[in-house]
Design a protein that fits this description.
The complex is a heterodimer of chains A (265) and B (312).
Chain A (H helix, E strand, L loop, with lengths): L5 H21 L8 H31 L16 H6 L10 H4 L5 H23 L4 H30 L2 H14 L11 H8 L6 H19 L21 H9 L1 H5 L6
Helix pairs in contact in A: 1-2, 1-8, 2-6, 5-6, 5-7, 5-9, 6-7, 6-9
Chain B lengths: L2 H13 L12 H20 L1 H5 L8 H26 L5 H9 L17 H18 L8 H29 L3 H20 L11 H6 L7 H19 L9 E3 L4 E3 L5 H11 L3 H14 L1 H19 L1
Antiparallel strand pairs in B: 1-2
Helix pairs in contact in B: 2-4, 4-7, 6-7, 6-8, 6-10
Classes of the chains: A mainly alpha (265), B mainly alpha (312).
The structure holds fe (ii) ion (3 copies).
One fe (ii) ion (FE2) binds next to helix 4 and helix 7 of chain B.
């Protein structure tokens, strides 16, 4: 059995982040607070799942290129595909950051989760787009525009809710309390991210962090929210140690592929 | 001008296939009928999101997940166009939603049936979107301009949904034993409710004649139903499945399929609220609306603060 490569792990990390966040967002479809916003959030879910597919397809190719049997699950005919990667790996192989797997909560929490992530993702994709891996660069370039839109949309909502009414302000504060501890992980590089930075494929996360802080502060100022002084940050997701939330996402998402293995859908 | 004159001008326009536009004079009854029909349609699009949204998080592949999200999102879009078109008749979205949430307004009964397996995503696309298209294509020529124009956009997307649904079933029909079983089971459960989507038989359909004269209905319920049955009876053969009707048989003389008796007791019972999911569907809509109240209030409050800031 061949081992994984840092490039494959990095690509899976990029894929897992957007699949899990896209999946979470799609839980809102049909249940949004305003019809127009139901559509907007579903659209973001679609963009993210589209990005995930691109990354997984690339990862599947990389996994298949491995000499010998892949450590990743294969479907019919022993082929690793976007779907075997998404639907047949267990939680400890998922490398998404903890932020993306957190439950939707109310609209405030969902908005803030998206905002934190998009504020990270725009710079990540911008750097990916000029990186040395041509496939990742192409995906990054295309997805960058989507991320920019997601950032604008979620920023506007953070401002609206922070500034709107007492209730919306309180809800934003509560969301902030719940989510802040998951933001640090975005910038603490996993080994494959360190490798990607050295290989000039992906960004140096410590540099991105500065930009993220500026972006968040700017929006928080307008929203009347206080930028927290923190301390403790939860980590582990990017190396397969997740919160309890991920297991439920996977149980639901992977149900059909697990119950009826080896089928075409 | 007397009301009689206005009414004559109005009916002459309709007879000449000239569209009625929001600012034109129209009889009260025409306006009322349109508001009822269009808002009922809009509500159906919105409530109709729920049974399919139910499977988004369990879609079996990434491609299926993406297309299902896109489909449900399309239905939200249809609801939007139709609410907007209804607003041109002087009734706002808030009021219409209120009628839905209090149970005063109806929506298509088909969405009161549960989605129990993945195959239901296929059966809904093929049969439910299929029946909707059959009903709605003639409405692209409805006499009321905003309604007709909304229907043109909607019908394009609905036919896309129908093909997607059929393709889901086709894939299942070529799959494993369990998948074939899933496919047949979904067809068995969705067939009769879909046939009922065309409404009561013509002799029991009180509004038909007037609506035909106003050209907001172009074909009778039974005519449309027959077309639907004829088409599906052919298509089901491609799937290698059957429709759950022992009386379904080609009638050489009529050049149509004959089909079995519809269970109208079930039809009326679901309309009265006794379908398997009436309560769940309405509750889900009310919950989304009520839990969204603070969001809408916050958006409004922020917008007001901003415009005050700009003014000063
Ligand atoms: Fe629709
Ligand atoms: Fe429709
Ligand atoms: Fe549809």
């Amino acid at each position: 059995m061949s081992s994984s490569t840092p490039l494959l792990e990095y690509t899976l990390h990029l894929a897992d982040d957007v699949l899990i966040l896209g999946h979470r967002n799609s839980e809102w479809t049909g249940h949004g607070p305003i019809l127009e916003q139901d559509i907007a959030l579903s659209n973001i879910a679609l963009d993210l799942i589209g990005q995930a597919r691109n990354f997984y397809q690339y990862a599947a190719g990389l996994a298949g290129n491995d000499s010998g049997e892949s450590i990743y699950p294969a479907g019919g005919g022993g082929v690793v595909t976007e779907d075997t990667l998404a639907f047949l790996r267990d939680g400890w192989d998922f490398r998404n950051s903890l932020l993306t797997e957190q439950t939707n909560g109310d609209w405030a929490k969902t908005i803030l989760r998206q905002f934190f992530f998009s504020a990270f993702q725009v710079d990540l994709y911008e750097q990916l787009a000029v990186g040395r891996d041509t496939t990742l660069a192409a995906i990054g370039a295309k997805a960058y525009k989507e991320a920019l839109y997601h950032l604008r949309w979620s920023s506007e909502w953070v401002i609206r809710l922070g500034d709107g009414t007492d209730e919306s302000h309180q809800r934003m504060k509560k969301a902030l309390e719940e989510l802040w501890k998951f933001t640090g992980e975005l910038y603490i590089p996993a080994p494959y991210e360190r490798w990607a930075a050295e290989a000039e494929i992906g960004p140096d996360l410590s540099q991105l962090r500065v930009r993220w802080k500026e972006r968040v502060k700017e929006v928080f100022d307008e929203a009347g929210l206080t930028y927290p002084v923190t301390e403790w940050m939860q980590t582990g997701g990017k190396e397969g140690r997740h919160t309890e939330q991920l297991g439920y996402v996977l149980a639901e998402m992977q149900f059909l592929q697990r119950a009826y293995p080896g089928c075409e859908w | 001008m007397s009301v009689q004159d206005l009414e004559k001008i109005f009916q002459d326009k309709i007879d000449a296939d000239i569209r009625i536009e929001p600012k034109d004079w129209m009889p009260d009854a025409y306006r009322k009928t349109l508001v009822r029909q269009m808002s009922q349609h809009a509500h159906s699009e919105i409530v109709g999101m729920l049974p399919e949204a139910n499977w988004i998080t369990r879609a079996p592949t990434l491609r299926r997940k993406a297309t299902l999200i896109a489909k449900v999102q399309d239905e939200a879009g249809h609801g939007l166009y139709l609410y907007a078109a209804t607003e041109t008749l002087g009734t706002g979205r808030e009021e219409l939603l209120d009628q839905l949430h209090t149970g005063k307004a109806k929506y298509s009964s088909i969405f009161n049936y549960p989605t129990l397996t993945w195959a239901d995503m296929g059966a809904i696309g093929w049969l439910v979107d299929g029946a909707a298209i059959m009903n709605q294509v003639p409405l692209c020529r409805a006499s009321y301009g905003p309604y007709a124009r909304a229907m043109v956009r909607i019908c394009k997307e609905e036919s896309f949904h129908q093909r997607q649904g059929f393709e889901i079933l086709l894939t299942l029909s070529k799959g494993s034993e369990a998948q074939r079983r899933m496919c047949q089971d979904a067809i068995d459960r969705w067939w009769w409710p879909s046939v009922m989507m065309f409404g009561p038989n013509d002799d029991a359909s009180p509004h038909t004649a007037q609506s035909m004269q106003w050209k907001i209905k172009r074909f009778s319920n039974d005519e449309l139903r027959q077309r639907f049955v004829d088409i599906c009876a052919g298509q089901v053969k491609i799937l290698g499945m059957t429709l759950p009707d022992p009386d379904l048989v080609w009638n050489e003389h009529r050049q149509h399929y004959d089909f079995g008796a519809i269970n109208w007791d079930e039809f009326w019972s679901v309309i009265k609220g006794n379908g398997p999911c009436n309560k769940d569907r309405l509750e889900a809509r009310v919950k989304a609306h009520e839990e969204g109240a603070w969001v809408r209030e916050a958006a409004l409050a922020h917008a007001e603060k901003m415009s005050r800031k700009r003014a000063s």
